[in-house]
């Protein structure tokens, strides 16, 4: 197998792709993915056929897996989200799978339930609701992207006979807004709902809020039932990944024993990535909580710097508290393309991830200012 070689034209194609990816990675400021990682030490693992099929907490007949580290990763996030001992989870392919897992659980527990989610909710939720055929109602958002609590309360009040299943955004996609879970709990309490389910889509901010003082609570201690967090976003990974975590007693109710792999089929997919749990484990083990606190604070500082620089060149720019997403006026299509910005109607955003330094912001502002000077 050692002597397999690419034809020269194919080698050229591959080399060109690498060069292009390096260039594109040097102006990447619009999506919440941290490019500042180094997993070189783990490269030998890429030559193994690792597959984490099955439940990471149950042994299986497929032994070439990284369950031992996957469990530690899940445990880390369980602590981060105050799950105590009553949790179960696994490393997913990203935020979407974690959201799907949470809503799947909710549907199995409350087949007649209605899902409430705001206008600013990530597009994965609408897709998942279609796939799972769950009844749902979209709730208005406030201007800052946070769910409109009055609209939520009034809408649930009309449907008091059905279980509310609420998707709380812990960092919305466009504006980085946080739906306040304790406030939502207050509404459910006020309406005296006998049953409820809360899923937190914490794709990005699930790795930010735990490292900030006085951040809004979204963990299991605030009555959340399941949480999805991305691994390739704030932490960073060359392969998309994430964490799904839920209350164990709920998961037990839907687990099905599958004899073929000699494990429990608790996860959404069969074969599962065995490399990403190793990446995440490595990233978490090489950085203590103090390190993450510093990373988060640095992102806030750079975000504030970006806001003041944007304002300096005449832009409207702002961010939500606890968010590193900077919202500003829709720029030209050239800027959108070059800097890979996400845009929505008349706004665009940049997201300060740990790889975004002042120098990055300066380069971006220079491009933007130059445009403004053109006739
Ligand atoms: C990125 C994101 C998702 C989806 O995550 P993927 O890893 O792309 O599947 C879901 N919700 C929010 C708020 C996100 O930012």
Please give a handful of descriptors for the protein shown.
12 helices; Aspartate Aminotransferase, domain 2; single chain; Aspartate Aminotransferase, domain 1; binds pyridoxal-5'-phosphate; alpha/beta; 15% strand
Q: Rg, please? A: 22 Å
- As laid out across the biggest beta sheet, the strand order is 1-7-6-5-4-2-3
Task: Describe the largest sheet.
Answer: 7 strands, mixed
- Alpha-beta content class: alpha/beta
Bound molecules: pyridoxal-5'-phosphate
CATH superfamily of the largest domain: Type I PLP-dependent aspartate aminotransferase-like (Major domain)
Please, how many domains?
Answer: 2
Percentage of β-strand residues: 15-25%
The average pLDDT value, as a whole number, equals: 94
Would you identify the regions where 5 or more consecutive residues have pLDDT less than 50? none
* Total number of strands: 13
CATH topology grouping of the largest domain: Aspartate Aminotransferase, domain 2
Reading off the top of the CATH hierarchy, the class of the largest domain is best stated as Alpha Beta
Characterize the overall form. globular
N- to C-terminal distance: 59 Å
Relative helix content: 25-40%
